[in-house]
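Encode chain A's predicted structure.
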Amino acid sequence: MASFRYRSNRWQARVRRKGYPDETKSFISRQDAEKWARSLESEIDKGQFVNVSEAQRTTLGDLIDRYLVEVTPSMKGAAEDTIRLKAIMRRDISRWSMTNLSAARIAAYRDERLKEVTGGTVIRELAYLSAIINHGRKEWGINVLNPVLMVRKPPTPQARTRVLTNEEIAKLMLVLEPTGRKSHWTKPVVQLALATAMRRGELLSLRWENIDLKARTAFLSDTKNGESRTVPLSTVAVQVLEELPRHISGVVIPLRYFTLDAAFKRACKRAKLNDVRFHDLRRTAITRMAEKLPNVIELAAVSGHKSLMVLKRYYQPKAEALALKLG
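Encoded structure for chain A:
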């Protein structure tokens, strides 16, 4: 049953029902308090009551912050995810409570971001928000609908097809020479990326105890698809590894993810290479390897792709080269 009391110039309504926690709310008038109490009791009687008090107290920013502390550290790509999520927390949308975070507000955030970044970035950010809200619903008692699911996503951009030419690779290697204050780790990691087709995270996780230079293999205990993989090393890759100094940590390339990212972008700018990302080195390597490994099963074993359809996106042969093969 409901009880009412006048306190601090406001009417406080309290609804007590067996099997439910007490619900309280304050109003300016007793009439509004009674109306709220009747509505709440009706929902309880019909079995439709959902406690949203936690959602009312929690903003989207609070939810993201808790996710960063409790969930993100155990995920792959935690460093990159942390930076992106903290950037979202600085946006106005993070100040809305979860009960007031409507699909319209998510859509407004989407449109605002589309003026600043690509559709692919916006799709990724919406996926972040959807995953965080779903986690809050399942684990933290945030009893609200997921508004992201009701918002239209931007069109999925076409997959990248950028492959570096031999001339572009030569320019890149030239500017990566470790002169002055340039890091002497950036050039070898780029060389290894082109020689092995390993992902950036895989290269940065390489340890010397997992490399067998005699057998010409590198063991990756944890990859993007969740499985371990042994990567065959070409003579070029072996030569690069043999010339590397041994770091005390046992890591082959002692660079952080974003340190390497920044150094690579500076190098591309100095070399005057347009629209080049570090991951394009993997596509370039796979395209070059396909000429030596025409068997797609062998090529997938080297690249670590489970799906041949995904591998196909990475293999970008030139029409002229295929024409020569046709005769």
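The mean pLDDT is 87.
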